[in-house]
Amino acid sequence: MAIHSGAGKTAPQSALVNVPKLVSAYYLNEPDLEQNPEHCVAFGTSGHRGCSYDVKFNESHILAITQAICDYRKQNDIFGPLFLGKDTHALSEAAFNSAIEVLVANEVQVITQEDGDFTPTPVISHAIVSHNKLHPNELADGIVVTPSHNPPEDGGFKYNPPNGGPADTDVTKWIEDRANQLLLEDLVEVELFPFAKASHSGFIRYEDLMTPYIDDLVNIVNLKAISDAGIKIGIDPLGGSGINFWPVIAKKYNLDLTVVNDVVDPRFAFMPLDKDGKIRMDCSSPYSMANLIALKDDFDVSIGNDPDYDRHGIVTPDGLMNPNHFLAVAIDYLLKHRDWNETVEIGKTLVSSSMIDKVATRNNRKVKEVPVGFKWFVEGLSKGKLAFGGEESAGAAFLRFDGSVWCTDKDGFIMGLLAAEILAVTGKTPSALYKELEQEFGSPIYKRLDAPATSGQKSRLQALSASDVKADTLAGEPILQKLTHAPGNNAAIGGLKVVTENGWFAARPSGTEDIYKIYLESFKGEEHLALLEKEAKKLVDSVIS
What we know:
Blueprint: H1 19-28, E1 43-44, E2 47-51, H2 59-75, E3 82-86, H3 90-105, E4 110-113, H4 121-134, E5 141-145, E6 154-160, H5 169-184, H6 195-198, E7 204-207, H7 210-216, H8 223-229, E8 232-236, H9 245-253, E9 256-259, H10 290-293, E10 301-305, E11 312-316, E12 319-320, H11 323-337, E13 345-349, H12 355-362, E14 367-370, H13 378-382, E15 386-391, E16 395-398, H14 412-426, H15 430-441, E17 445-452, H16 455-462, E18 473-474, E19 477-478, E20 481-485, E21 492-499, E22 503-509, E23 515-522, H17 526-544
Helix pairs in contact: 2-3, 2-5, 8-14, 11-12, 11-15
């Protein structure tokens, strides 16, 4: 896809969302599942997302989903509090309020941030895990109202069960089906309590969720080392939900930390356009992160995060790090500087870089390779069996110093602070350490692209078996593995991964567009990557057409 002419430049007025119109559409547009099946509730890897203009994220959707979650809680004997958080997207406030009306009507004890402030995803996960450790007979769960890094006009709604992490497929499918049933029945079984009276109902507790999380950071990141070394840190919250956390973190731990952008604007008017010309708070995109990259020489290390703070972007004087590169460096560093049990494994998604495998092997650790989605790391992190779980899309979490669980969702705070710790302890930036890994293992080139596919072709790709792939070679090398199930847990990957000695590709159908996604990596250079791309497309097309 061609790069948009405005990519990396501040969004023009024409690109900004009309917030009053968007919020009005949230209340006025009504989904009609019988006439328009595309109006249904559909949980992806991170909850239900959509735009109110398209009748995919409207008041009726949120009322139905929240009632479905209440029904799920009753069916599964979840009677503890529900931690409710929201990010800074325009639709998040409206959806948050809609959820309150249903939760209170169902007599669910809701705990939310005092003063109506924003609450990042990892803070909700940390709160759930911490509560359930102390109160195993009164299990808590949570909801975060966020579409993650999606454009300003989108809304999102995700559920975290008592394990604290993203809900597994069986849970989201149950909630999705129940919500759609409620929508088809005109919400007659949805219980509502007026929002104006909710705060006096006794079912809402406004608590300080920030302080317990910040106080606990000392048990997962070496903040004293960062302070003692005087590491100069730049922070661009990208207008996200963690914006009020950073000054408190800096003061408590005596960090030389500067928030370079303290604006919260539901239009995200300060954002540079992404590669396709859209506003997208993607901290792994050099276009979206252009403002922070421009300041790279002013700081030793800089950190960007998406609106709900489950992703991280790391900038050094060398520029924005590729997410795969930082994951490899972080894993290598942690395995050398944490006294964790020798049996703990490293979790990676099957479309993450093979550099992670090489680093783990050199540190005598096993890699647990799973399908795309952080939910696959939740059990391992919660039981202390996975030291680290990371996704190629710049989301990760790891264990505390003592090897116990920190949280079971992606945490952009700890990953950003880890980058500063790495510099403080080693005297080298994460990007410099990645160059050392390249000298040791070679320089992989990683690429992700989209290819057109009909709904029928996407269905065939999702249902492939390894025996459907007849090819024996790929890009001049014998094929070593043909995978339709992840080797780490034997879960279906919903696509295909083909591996050779010096390269691999993976193909997965998009859940929302008429495309399939191809991920490629070569350890033999650009020419080999180009051949890998050409033959990967040809191979996939041959088995799905």
